[in-house]
Input
Amino acid sequence: MRYWIALCLWFPLYAMELSIQSGKEEGEKFSILHLQNATPFSCEATNNEFGETRRIDCRLPRVPSKSFSPINNTHLNVIGVPTAQGYTITITPKAKMKLIPLAFDLSKETETFQGSIRSTKHWSVVGYTQTLPLLAIQPPSSSAINFPVKINKDIRPFVGGLDLKGNPIKIARVQDVTDYMEMKKAYEAKKYEKVLDLSTNALKNYPKTVFKNELLLYQIRALHHEEESEKLIEVAKQFLRDYSSDPSVAEVLAYIANSYGKLGQSIDADYFFDRLFDEQSDSPFASLGMVYKAEQLESTGDLKKAVQFYQKALGSSKDVAIASQAAFKLAQIELNNNNAKKAALYIDKIASANPNYFAEVRDNAMAMAEVFFDKNDPKTAARISEGLINATEKNSPDHEIILKNLGLELAKANKRTEALKRFNEYLDTYKYGEFIEEVRRAKDGLFFDEGDKNTTGEIKKYNELIERYGNDSVGRKALYKKAQLLFKDQKYQDILDMESELYRLESSEYPETTAMITKSAIGLEKARLKEGKCVEAMTLQRMYKIRLLSEWDEYLFNCALKTTQYAAAKKIAQSHLKSKSIAQRQIWLYRIVKTQFGLGEYKEAIKGGNELITLLGAEKNPPLNDIYRTMFDAAQRVGDADGMIRYIKAVEGAFVNDFKDIERYTQMVSLGLNRKDEGIVQTYASKVAALQERTKTYTQSPYIEFTLAQSYQNLGKDTAALTVLKTLNKQKLNTEKRSRQQYLIGAIEQKLGHKREARDAFNASIKADKNSAWGKLAKDASGLL
Output
């Protein structure tokens, strides 16, 4: 027996049209979804390992101007979601389905052929239970030739109603009471086809039965569940005409209005909705009618009014099932509008009052849980899944995936104990399950929240997870958690050692990674500055472009000077020159002068130094007196003799007999020589000699003694010169220098008339280095004695 009942739900999406038709063949129902567009589009079927189609994705180039609510009928689930590439319509089966391209319009074309079609304007999806209806599809023979086929237009004859065996319905007469009771049992068992058969036969055989109103009512209910809208309207009209005062009028009005709405006959639907709301406002079916009215409005794209009716139904119904239905619809709409928070409020109402409702809309509920999970609301997703798992038998094909999803949702919601319980339940129940590896990874992931107080133990645990899972999600999270723990313990160097691995983490998944690396670099630089490890500190600053607060400027300045990064030091110092505090200005002016000197900007250093000296005159700051040394050095570099004289006196005043200034005194000796100023030479050569003698450090010898002795000789002070030269006797000199010293002594002794002492000195000179120029002069001089 083959027949259709054409039940069309039409959804316009700009140039796109969706329609659903239902029918029955050989006693088995089926549904056909038609997708038609003005331009070709693609549909792709995804099959399991048995060749059964488990998912179909149809992709449109742009998002429609009006969205449609998810479709959920006996055989198919249909949802549409915007994507980055446009709009995707996804179809999943309740049992089985087949994707068929309709590339030929047989009303216009007489020739067809079989081919691989990827894109067309019209696709159909057949949803069925066991056997594909209407068609007999066989795989093509490898030896066949694919010729085009010519088909003449042919209208098939209409086949009237027959029983399941193809014969006219003939049922033996039974008592109407027996039929009525059997029909009620069939209805309670949800055997709606049997209800229709029994009620139809009873009405035919017992037209005057007292159960006529009940038989009609159960027939209407069965037709409602079977979604046979046209037949329902016919029976419902008879019921309303014959039993206008029956207590079930409200229920019938709700069903007939709903049927008209599904057929797209909105005017007729509104008539019965108005009757229901006006005449039966106190009935629970008035609230159900509001749900049906909202569905009608939703299917036509009027979401605003649809929401209003759903909300009225939710607010007015005392029937928890109707309220749950309205709340679920509202949640779907809010999710489609990207308002997950509001959708979650409706789901919470259902989960609190009627969690078993989710099992009544199982496929849509499972899909909704996934949406909440993807929108980072695992708590709401878990509430849906908990309702589903509690109403699902373990031998159900959905039990495994619901249990797996529930564990993942609880884990993401940080409900570790509950998640661990569900994961263990899955591992015990499905030892070879499809999702066994995913569940094991998720279970391992729970260890991130154990809160181990032993840092070493936690690090060891994270290292094991990183080694085990590598770049897997668990491995990535372990790496991130390890870095967080190291950061908490201020182990900044360890974090920077992991830098390359951390930068491979997705910023969208771990948005704090870059900040953690930067903060670690800052923390490590501060530590190195305090430790005086300037090379490391300045390297970190340059690599990570770190900018510390001004409180760290002194550390940075000192390190910049220490590592000869004078430009950086100058930049740091300049920012403090306008300080209101004289002491602060003095300190930073001192520092910038030191920096300018390091950069070779000697004139600028002298200018800044003079400004600092002026400030020091207004407010003493002895630790900064070292500026006089810098000023002397800068004057020496630019050849400012007067400046050298001026600043060396300031140095002498601030630092009396300080060995640090021995080279400056030596430079003053050179200045005296250049100026032929014996006073300067003798003054500062004497200071150098005294500092060396006091510290027993002879860095400037014998140059300073030779120079001082010569200056004394220039002024005729031979005895003083001789005394100076003899001070070199106790110092270690090389042979050439010793030969020179002894010759000079011999020459002065000769001049003073001390021949014996002169001869001894000359001989000592020759002995020290007879081949040197001084040894040869000594030999010549000795020969004259």
Residues 1-11, 155-161, 169-174 have pLDDT under 50 and may be disordered. Residues 513-531 form the longest helix (19 residues). The radius of gyration is 51 Å.
